[in-house]
Recover the amino acids of this structure.
């Protein structure tokens, strides 16, 4: 934990994808609280920020953690099509022919 607290930047991807289990929410809170106003943390999520509290089994602890995250934070909301377009849709109308690599003679 001490190493994570001192790292200059932590990126947490897909926050809230799975609810935190008891104990995990305490560890996450401790991490956020120790890094609070000292180092940078980037958190991505497909959830709206108002839904992040649902990831915490302990709602009071969740509110406290999210309050620290929200304070002085920059919030970017991206709206648009996913870059993960299903292959069938991305390749519609395209003919793809695989070619064997040229071999040296």
């Amino acid at each position: 934990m001490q190493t994570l607290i001192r790292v200059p930047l932590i990126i947490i991807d897909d926050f809230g994808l799975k609810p935190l289990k008891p104990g995990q929410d305490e560890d996450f809170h401790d991490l956020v609280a120790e890094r609070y106003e000292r180092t940078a943390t980037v958190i991505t999520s497909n959830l709206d920020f108002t839904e992040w509290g649902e990831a915490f089994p302990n709602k009071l602890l969740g509110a406290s953690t999210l309050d620290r995250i929200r304070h002085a934070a920059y919030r970017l909301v991206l709206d648009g099509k996913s870059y993960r377009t299903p292959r069938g849709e991305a390749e519609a109308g395209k003919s793809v022919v695989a070619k064997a690599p040229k071999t040296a003679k």
